[in-house]
Each structure stands twice: as structure tokens, then as C-alpha cells.
Amino acid sequence: ADPEEGRKLATQCKTCHGLDGIAKIPVAPHLAGESQIYIEKQLKAFRSGKRENDMMSVVAKNLTDQQISDLAAWYQSIEITAKMPE
Amino acid sequence: ADPEEGRKLATQCKTCHGLDGIAKIPVAPHLAGESQIYIEKQLKAFRSGKRENDMMSVVAKNLTDQQISDLAAWYQSIEITAKMPE
């Protein structure tokens, strides 16, 4: 898995999920820092039809295993910090 | 939706997802800062069986709409920041 390749591929994700994995729209989840295994599993589930979403079912259909692996590596490589409300 | 109630309910989520929404295990996604609409949709999809996961299908089955709304409000209330690799 190559995060640099994933970063390039993420140009097709960034309108909704952000290049840095902070989503631009409420219906899309933040992906920043999500694990390799989680992102791969979801993209493959969208690709196979096991998980369904109007947008993601279309996008994932054309991704190869390598591209999925690289995309997951990119989003996993982003560090996140969380701050709970007081 | 009451984030304070959601925080209390999140005691049943925190072993995997963290009370602050930073996941403790790679197979579970971070939930910190995810939107109300996204979290509600996913929990309802797990509850109905539309989305499947061994753990979440069981957990979600017992949640009411109000509890789902409160849990979503809690995780949405957490602020996240992302830092991309250099």
C-alpha cells in the first residue's frame, strides 16, 4: 500500500471526504485516520454491493484492489486529534 | 437529540470506538466529529439489517430512535483536527 499513490487517487474522493479526510458534507463521513483495514473493508463492500450508497456504489465499482489499498493507506496516514466538549 | 444522554449511552460503545470517538481497535472506525445524519443513518442501517457487522448488528438492534439520536449528538459534538503527512 502506497499512501502517496493514495493521495493522488483521493482527488476523486476529496469533494465529499476532503483530501485531509475531513468531510465537506454531512452525509459523508470523515475518513482522516481511519484504519487501513476499515477503509479497505468498506470500499470492497461498496464494490461488491454488500454495502450500498448511491455515490459510493458507483465510485467503488471501478477501483482495483491496489487502488483501494493505496487509498486506505493515504487516509490512514492522516493524524487526528479529538477534543470532547467541556 | 441530547449529547449528554448520548455520552452516557456511549459507555456501551467506548471499548471499541472510544468515549472520545477515537477507535481502540483497527476494525472499528473513529466516530469523533462524524455528523448527526451520518451516525443516525448507519445505526439505523445496522438495526434494520441493511448494513451488516457481527458486533454492530447486535448492538444496534436494541437501540431506540431517541437513543440513536442522542448517541449521534454525542459523537458529533467532539471536535477533530487532522494533520496530513508532510
Query: What is the strand content of chain A?
Result: 5-15%
| Structural class category of chain A | mainly alpha
Largest interface: A-B, 32 and 32 residues
Shape of chain A: globular
CATH class of chain A equals Mainly Alpha
- Give the number of DSSP strands of chain A: 1
In this structure, how is the largest beta sheet of chain A organized?
none
- What is the quaternary state of this protein? homodimer
| Helix/strand order of chain A | HHHHHE
Spans where pLDDT lies below 50 across 5 or more residues of chain A: none
Explained architecture:
The structure is a homodimer of 86-residue chains. The first copy, chain A, has 86 residues and is mainly alpha-helical. The first copy, chain A, has a single domain, classed as Cytochrome c-like domain (Cytochrome Bc1 Complex, Chain D, domain 2, Orthogonal Bundle), CATH 1.10.760. Helix content of chain A is 51%, strand content 6%. Chain A has helices spanning 3-9, 14-17, 36-48, 54-61, 65-76, and one strand at 79-83. Chain A is globular. The first copy, chain A, starts with a helix and ends with a strand. At the A-B interface, helix 3 and strand 1 of A face helix 3 and strand 1 of B. Strand 1 of chain A pairs antiparallel with strand 1 (79-83) of chain B.
